[in-house]
Protein backbone atom coordinates (compact mmCIF):
# COMPACT_ATOMS: atom_id res chain seq x y z
CA UNK A 1 0.00 0.00 0.00
CA UNK A 2 1.37 3.39 -0.98
CA UNK A 3 3.08 5.49 1.67
CA UNK A 4 1.34 8.79 2.45
CA UNK A 5 3.65 11.78 2.79
CA UNK A 6 2.40 13.90 5.66
CA UNK A 7 3.81 17.20 6.90
CA UNK A 8 7.55 16.40 7.12
CA UNK A 9 7.10 12.70 7.88
CA UNK A 10 5.83 9.55 6.11
CA UNK A 11 2.90 7.31 7.06
CA UNK A 12 3.87 3.76 6.11
CA UNK A 13 1.53 0.78 5.90
CA UNK A 14 2.07 -2.82 7.03
CA UNK A 15 5.40 -4.48 6.12
CA UNK A 16 6.78 -1.36 4.44
CA UNK A 17 6.65 0.39 7.80
CA UNK A 18 8.98 -2.03 9.55
CA UNK A 19 11.41 -1.89 6.66
CA UNK A 20 11.46 1.90 6.88
CA UNK A 21 11.89 1.85 10.67
CA UNK A 22 14.80 -0.57 10.55
CA UNK A 23 16.47 1.42 7.77
CA UNK A 24 16.10 4.56 9.90
CA UNK A 25 17.59 2.81 12.94
CA UNK A 26 20.61 1.71 10.90
CA UNK A 27 21.13 5.17 9.42
CA UNK A 28 20.71 7.16 12.66
CA UNK A 29 22.96 6.95 15.70
CA UNK A 30 20.59 6.68 18.63
CA UNK A 31 21.88 6.10 22.14
CA UNK A 32 19.00 3.89 23.26
CA UNK A 33 15.38 3.08 22.49
CA UNK A 34 12.28 3.42 24.66
CA UNK A 35 8.93 1.84 23.81
CA UNK A 36 5.95 3.48 25.54
CA UNK A 37 2.86 1.28 25.89
CA UNK A 38 -0.20 1.08 28.05
CA UNK A 39 -1.27 -2.05 29.90
CA UNK A 40 -3.40 -3.21 26.95
CA UNK A 41 -0.79 -2.86 24.23
CA UNK A 42 1.87 -4.28 26.52
CA UNK A 43 -0.23 -7.45 26.80
CA UNK A 44 -1.60 -7.74 23.27
CA UNK A 45 0.65 -5.87 20.82
CA UNK A 46 4.20 -5.65 22.15
CA UNK A 47 5.01 -9.30 21.46
CA UNK A 48 3.81 -8.83 17.86
CA UNK A 49 5.99 -5.75 17.36
CA UNK A 50 9.32 -6.69 18.96
CA UNK A 51 10.28 -9.43 16.44
CA UNK A 52 10.21 -6.84 13.64
CA UNK A 53 12.88 -4.70 15.30
CA UNK A 54 16.41 -5.07 13.91
CA UNK A 55 18.71 -3.18 16.27
CA UNK A 56 21.51 -3.64 18.79
CA UNK A 57 20.27 -0.72 20.86
CA UNK A 58 19.26 -1.22 24.46
CA UNK A 59 15.45 -1.40 24.52
CA UNK A 60 13.46 -0.32 27.56
CA UNK A 61 9.68 -0.70 27.92
CA UNK A 62 7.72 1.98 29.77
CA UNK A 63 4.13 1.00 30.56
CA UNK A 64 1.29 2.97 32.11
CA UNK A 65 -2.27 1.94 32.97
CA UNK A 66 -4.68 2.01 30.03
CA UNK A 67 -7.60 4.42 29.83
CA UNK A 68 -8.43 8.03 29.01
CA UNK A 69 -8.49 8.76 32.75
CA UNK A 70 -4.71 8.29 32.77
CA UNK A 71 -4.08 10.71 29.90
CA UNK A 72 -2.89 13.46 32.21
CA UNK A 73 0.16 15.37 33.34
CA UNK A 74 0.67 13.07 36.35
CA UNK A 75 1.27 10.13 34.00
CA UNK A 76 3.67 12.29 31.98
CA UNK A 77 5.64 13.12 35.12
CA UNK A 78 6.01 9.44 35.92
CA UNK A 79 7.16 8.65 32.38
CA UNK A 80 9.62 11.57 32.40
CA UNK A 81 11.03 10.28 35.70
CA UNK A 82 11.47 6.76 34.31
CA UNK A 83 13.18 8.11 31.18
CA UNK A 84 15.56 10.06 33.39
CA UNK A 85 16.27 7.10 35.68
CA UNK A 86 16.97 4.85 32.67
CA UNK A 87 19.45 7.28 31.17
CA UNK A 88 17.46 8.73 28.28
CA UNK A 89 19.21 11.62 26.54
CA UNK A 90 18.63 13.84 23.53
CA UNK A 91 19.83 11.04 21.23
CA UNK A 92 17.24 8.58 22.50
CA UNK A 93 14.36 7.37 20.34
CA UNK A 94 10.85 6.91 21.70
CA UNK A 95 8.41 4.52 20.00
CA UNK A 96 4.77 4.96 21.01
CA UNK A 97 2.96 1.66 20.56
CA UNK A 98 -0.74 1.96 21.30
CA UNK A 99 -4.00 3.75 20.73
CA UNK A 100 -4.67 7.47 20.76
CA UNK A 101 -3.98 7.85 24.48
CA UNK A 102 -0.49 6.35 24.03
CA UNK A 103 0.40 8.28 20.87
CA UNK A 104 -0.99 11.57 22.23
CA UNK A 105 0.70 11.24 25.62
CA UNK A 106 3.86 9.57 24.33
CA UNK A 107 4.27 12.19 21.61
CA UNK A 108 3.91 14.95 24.21
CA UNK A 109 6.40 13.26 26.55
CA UNK A 110 8.95 12.91 23.74
CA UNK A 111 8.36 16.44 22.45
CA UNK A 112 9.07 17.99 25.85
CA UNK A 113 11.70 15.68 27.37
CA UNK A 114 15.04 17.54 27.21
CA UNK A 115 13.25 19.96 24.84
CA UNK A 116 12.45 17.19 22.39
CA UNK A 117 13.63 13.74 21.32
CA UNK A 118 12.73 11.79 18.18
CA UNK A 119 9.62 9.64 18.32
CA UNK A 120 7.79 7.15 16.11
CA UNK A 121 4.07 6.41 16.40
CA UNK A 122 2.67 2.92 15.84
CA UNK A 123 -1.11 3.19 16.31
CA UNK A 124 -2.80 -0.07 17.33
CA UNK A 125 -6.50 0.87 17.33
CA UNK A 126 -8.71 1.90 14.44
CA UNK A 127 -9.26 5.31 16.04
CA UNK A 128 -5.57 6.03 16.37
CA UNK A 129 -4.85 4.80 12.85
CA UNK A 130 -7.36 7.09 11.13
CA UNK A 131 -7.13 10.04 13.51
CA UNK A 132 -4.05 10.27 15.76
CA UNK A 133 -1.69 9.04 13.03
CA UNK A 134 -1.82 12.33 11.11
CA UNK A 135 -1.40 15.92 12.17
CA UNK A 136 1.26 16.03 14.86
CA UNK A 137 -1.12 16.83 17.71
CA UNK A 138 0.21 15.64 21.05
CA UNK A 139 -1.03 16.28 24.53
CA UNK A 140 -3.03 15.34 27.59
CA UNK A 141 -6.29 16.21 29.29
CA UNK A 142 -6.64 18.75 32.09
CA UNK A 143 -9.15 17.17 34.44
CA UNK A 144 -12.21 16.52 32.28
CA UNK A 145 -11.12 19.01 29.59
CA UNK A 146 -9.91 17.14 26.53
CA UNK A 147 -6.43 17.81 25.12
CA UNK A 148 -5.97 21.13 26.91
CA UNK A 149 -2.20 20.72 27.36
CA UNK A 150 -0.01 19.83 24.40
CA UNK A 151 2.05 20.82 21.40
CA UNK A 152 1.94 20.21 17.66
CA UNK A 153 5.10 18.28 16.84
CA UNK A 154 5.47 15.62 14.18
CA UNK A 155 6.99 12.17 14.60
CA UNK A 156 9.86 10.78 12.54
CA UNK A 157 7.36 8.41 10.93
CA UNK A 158 4.09 6.58 11.54
CA UNK A 159 3.62 2.85 10.99
CA UNK A 160 0.08 1.56 10.42
CA UNK A 161 -0.22 -2.23 10.59
CA UNK A 162 -3.76 -3.56 10.59
CA UNK A 163 -2.74 -6.87 12.20
CA UNK A 164 -3.01 -5.08 15.56
CA UNK A 165 -6.73 -4.63 14.97
CA UNK A 166 -7.18 -8.36 15.59
CA UNK A 167 -6.83 -7.54 19.30
CA UNK A 168 -9.31 -4.63 19.31
CA UNK A 169 -12.83 -5.17 20.76
CA UNK A 170 -15.88 -4.34 18.63
CA UNK A 171 -16.80 -1.26 20.65
CA UNK A 172 -13.31 0.14 20.06
CA UNK A 173 -13.63 -0.59 16.34
CA UNK A 174 -16.92 1.34 16.29
CA UNK A 175 -15.18 4.16 18.11
CA UNK A 176 -12.63 4.42 15.31
CA UNK A 177 -15.33 4.17 12.68
CA UNK A 178 -16.78 7.48 13.91
CA UNK A 179 -13.74 9.37 12.65
CA UNK A 180 -14.00 7.61 9.28
CA UNK A 181 -17.64 8.66 9.02
CA UNK A 182 -16.59 12.20 9.86
CA UNK A 183 -13.97 12.24 7.09
CA UNK A 184 -16.66 11.34 4.58
CA UNK A 185 -19.12 13.93 5.90
CA UNK A 186 -16.64 16.81 5.78
CA UNK A 187 -14.70 15.94 2.64
CA UNK A 188 -15.84 13.03 0.47
CA UNK A 189 -19.51 12.21 -0.11
CA UNK A 190 -18.66 9.01 -1.99
CA UNK A 191 -16.59 7.80 0.96
CA UNK A 192 -19.48 8.58 3.34
CA UNK A 193 -21.89 6.64 1.14
CA UNK A 194 -19.79 3.49 1.47
CA UNK A 195 -20.91 3.35 5.11
CA UNK A 196 -24.66 3.81 4.56
CA UNK A 197 -25.15 0.05 4.77
CA UNK A 198 -22.48 -1.61 6.88
CA UNK A 199 -23.75 -5.04 5.83
CA UNK A 200 -22.65 -4.28 2.28
CA UNK A 201 -19.07 -3.37 3.21
CA UNK A 202 -16.38 -5.92 2.44
CA UNK A 203 -14.20 -5.46 5.50
CA UNK A 204 -11.44 -7.46 3.83
CA UNK A 205 -10.87 -4.08 2.18
CA UNK A 206 -10.42 -2.42 5.58
CA UNK A 207 -6.85 -1.49 4.68
CA UNK A 208 -8.12 0.53 1.72
CA UNK A 209 -10.79 2.25 3.83
CA UNK A 210 -8.19 3.17 6.44
CA UNK A 211 -5.77 4.39 3.77
CA UNK A 212 -8.46 6.67 2.29
CA UNK A 213 -9.38 8.04 5.72
CA UNK A 214 -5.73 8.84 6.50
CA UNK A 215 -5.35 10.46 3.06
CA UNK A 216 -8.40 12.69 3.66
CA UNK A 217 -7.15 13.91 7.02
CA UNK A 218 -3.66 14.42 5.63
CA UNK A 219 -4.94 16.48 2.70
CA UNK A 220 -6.68 18.84 5.13
CA UNK A 221 -3.77 19.06 7.58
CA UNK A 222 -1.23 19.74 4.83
CA UNK A 223 -3.18 22.89 3.93
CA UNK A 224 -3.21 24.15 7.51
CA UNK A 225 -0.76 22.37 9.86
CA UNK A 226 -1.33 24.64 12.88
CA UNK A 227 -5.15 24.82 12.71
CA UNK A 228 -5.57 28.47 11.86
CA UNK A 229 -8.15 27.84 9.14
CA UNK A 230 -9.39 24.78 7.20
CA UNK A 231 -7.97 22.24 9.67
CA UNK A 232 -10.80 23.29 11.97
CA UNK A 233 -12.98 21.19 9.64
CA UNK A 234 -11.67 18.11 11.44
CA UNK A 235 -13.47 19.31 14.58
CA UNK A 236 -16.91 18.56 13.10
CA UNK A 237 -18.79 16.64 15.79
CA UNK A 238 -16.05 17.38 18.30
CA UNK A 239 -17.23 20.68 19.80
CA UNK A 240 -20.23 19.01 21.41
CA UNK A 241 -18.65 15.54 21.31
CA UNK A 242 -15.69 16.54 23.47
CA UNK A 243 -17.96 18.31 25.95
CA UNK A 244 -20.15 15.20 26.19
CA UNK A 245 -17.09 12.95 26.54
CA UNK A 246 -15.63 15.14 29.29
CA UNK A 247 -18.94 15.35 31.17
CA UNK A 248 -19.42 11.58 31.13
CA UNK A 249 -15.78 11.08 32.16
CA UNK A 250 -16.10 13.17 35.35
CA UNK A 251 -19.66 12.19 36.30
CA UNK A 252 -19.60 9.09 38.50
CA UNK A 253 -23.27 8.37 37.75
CA UNK A 254 -22.54 8.02 34.03
CA UNK A 255 -20.91 5.22 32.05
CA UNK A 256 -17.72 6.60 30.49
CA UNK A 257 -18.02 6.98 26.73
CA UNK A 258 -15.35 6.03 24.25
CA UNK A 259 -14.12 8.95 22.15
CA UNK A 260 -15.87 7.77 19.00
CA UNK A 261 -19.13 7.13 20.84
CA UNK A 262 -19.17 10.74 22.03
CA UNK A 263 -18.16 12.07 18.60
CA UNK A 264 -20.97 10.06 16.97
CA UNK A 265 -23.47 11.91 19.18
CA UNK A 266 -21.70 15.17 18.44
CA UNK A 267 -22.01 14.60 14.69
CA UNK A 268 -25.77 14.01 14.96
CA UNK A 269 -26.22 17.14 17.09
CA UNK A 270 -24.04 19.29 14.84
CA UNK A 271 -25.76 17.93 11.73
CA UNK A 272 -29.08 19.04 13.24
CA UNK A 273 -27.56 22.47 13.78
CA UNK A 274 -26.27 22.47 10.19
CA UNK A 275 -29.79 21.70 8.96
CA UNK A 276 -31.35 24.50 11.01
CA UNK A 277 -28.74 26.93 9.72
CA UNK A 278 -29.77 25.93 6.17
CA UNK A 279 -26.41 24.33 5.40
CA UNK A 280 -27.80 20.84 4.70
CA UNK A 281 -31.24 19.57 3.71
CA UNK A 282 -33.67 17.83 6.02
CA UNK A 283 -33.19 14.64 3.99
CA UNK A 284 -29.41 14.82 4.44
CA UNK A 285 -29.84 15.32 8.17
CA UNK A 286 -32.13 12.32 8.55
CA UNK A 287 -29.75 10.18 6.50
CA UNK A 288 -26.87 11.14 8.81
CA UNK A 289 -28.93 10.62 11.96
CA UNK A 290 -30.35 7.24 10.93
CA UNK A 291 -26.98 5.95 9.68
CA UNK A 292 -25.11 6.88 12.85
CA UNK A 293 -27.90 5.64 15.14
CA UNK A 294 -27.87 2.30 13.31
CA UNK A 295 -24.23 1.83 14.39
CA UNK A 296 -24.13 3.30 17.91
CA UNK A 297 -26.31 2.74 20.96
CA UNK A 298 -28.51 5.62 22.04
CA UNK A 299 -27.22 7.50 25.06
CA UNK A 300 -29.69 8.87 27.61
CA UNK A 301 -29.47 12.55 28.47
CA UNK A 302 -31.44 13.83 31.46
CA UNK A 303 -32.63 17.43 31.64
CA UNK A 304 -29.99 18.27 34.24
CA UNK A 305 -27.18 16.93 31.99
CA UNK A 306 -27.50 19.57 29.30
CA UNK A 307 -26.39 22.72 31.13
CA UNK A 308 -23.15 21.19 32.49
CA UNK A 309 -22.32 20.06 28.94
CA UNK A 310 -23.00 23.57 27.63
CA UNK A 311 -20.77 24.99 30.38
CA UNK A 312 -17.86 22.85 29.11
CA UNK A 313 -18.13 24.34 25.60
CA UNK A 314 -16.36 27.52 26.67
CA UNK A 315 -13.13 25.51 26.99
CA UNK A 316 -13.21 24.24 23.38
CA UNK A 317 -9.87 24.97 21.70
CA UNK A 318 -11.49 26.57 18.62
CA UNK A 319 -12.95 29.36 20.73
CA UNK A 320 -11.64 32.86 20.18
CA UNK A 321 -12.27 35.87 22.43
CA UNK A 322 -14.70 33.80 24.50
CA UNK A 323 -16.88 32.96 21.50
CA UNK A 324 -17.83 29.33 20.82
CA UNK A 325 -17.20 28.42 17.18
CA UNK A 326 -18.44 25.32 15.38
CA UNK A 327 -17.31 23.53 12.24
CA UNK A 328 -20.55 22.56 10.48
CA UNK A 329 -21.17 20.61 7.28
CA UNK A 330 -22.36 22.52 4.22
CA UNK A 331 -23.87 19.65 2.29
CA UNK A 332 -22.42 16.16 2.73
CA UNK A 333 -18.76 16.30 1.75
CA UNK A 334 -18.13 19.99 2.49
CA UNK A 335 -17.57 22.11 5.58
CA UNK A 336 -18.11 25.62 6.87
CA UNK A 337 -15.92 26.73 9.78
CA UNK A 338 -16.17 29.47 12.42
CA UNK A 339 -19.94 29.17 12.82
CA UNK A 340 -21.64 30.76 15.81
CA UNK A 341 -24.46 28.78 17.42
CA UNK A 342 -26.72 29.89 20.26
CA UNK A 343 -27.58 27.67 23.21
CA UNK A 344 -31.25 27.51 22.27
CA UNK A 345 -30.43 25.70 19.02
CA UNK A 346 -28.03 23.35 20.81
CA UNK A 347 -30.76 22.44 23.32
CA UNK A 348 -33.15 21.74 20.43
CA UNK A 349 -30.50 19.47 18.89
CA UNK A 350 -30.35 17.44 22.12
CA UNK A 351 -34.15 17.23 22.18
CA UNK A 352 -34.19 15.96 18.61
CA UNK A 353 -31.44 13.41 19.36
CA UNK A 354 -33.63 11.93 22.08
CA UNK A 355 -36.66 11.70 19.78
UniProtKB/TrEMBL annotation:
Q: Which domain of life is it from?
A: Bacteria
Q: Where is the signal peptide?
A: none
Enzyme Commission no? 4.2.3.4
Keyword hit for Ribosomal protein: no
Q: Which EC main class describes this enzyme?
A: lyase
Which GO terms of the molecular function aspect are on file?
A: 3-dehydroquinate synthase activity
Report the cofactors. Answer: Co(2+); NAD(+)
InterPro entries for this protein: Dehydroquinate_synthase, DHQ_synth_AroB, DHQ_synth_fam, DHQS/DOIS_N, DHQS_C
All copies of the 3-dehydroquinate synthase N-terminal domain together span 62-174
Keyword entries, A-Z: Cobalt, Lyase, Metal-binding, NAD, Nucleotide-binding, Zinc
One Pfam match, given by its short name, reads DHQ_synthase
Keyword NAD belongs to the record? yes
The 3-dehydroquinate synthase C-terminal domain covers 176-319
What is the annotated role of this protein in its UniProt record?
Catalyzes the conversion of 3-deoxy-D-arabino-heptulosonate 7-phosphate (DAHP) to dehydroquinate (DHQ).
NCBIfam families the UniProt entry points to? aroB
- Name of the protein described by the UniProt record: 3-dehydroquinate synthase
Amino acid sequence: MQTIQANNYPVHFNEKGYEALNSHLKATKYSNLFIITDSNTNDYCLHKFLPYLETDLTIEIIEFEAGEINKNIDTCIEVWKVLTELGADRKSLVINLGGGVVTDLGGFVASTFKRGVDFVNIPTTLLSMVDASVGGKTGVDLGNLKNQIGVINVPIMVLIDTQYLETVPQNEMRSGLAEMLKHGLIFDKNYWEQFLDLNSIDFTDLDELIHRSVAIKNEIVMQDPTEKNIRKALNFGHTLGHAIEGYFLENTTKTTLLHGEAIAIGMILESYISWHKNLISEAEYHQIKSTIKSIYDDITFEENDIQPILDLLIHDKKNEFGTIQFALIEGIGAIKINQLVDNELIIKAFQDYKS
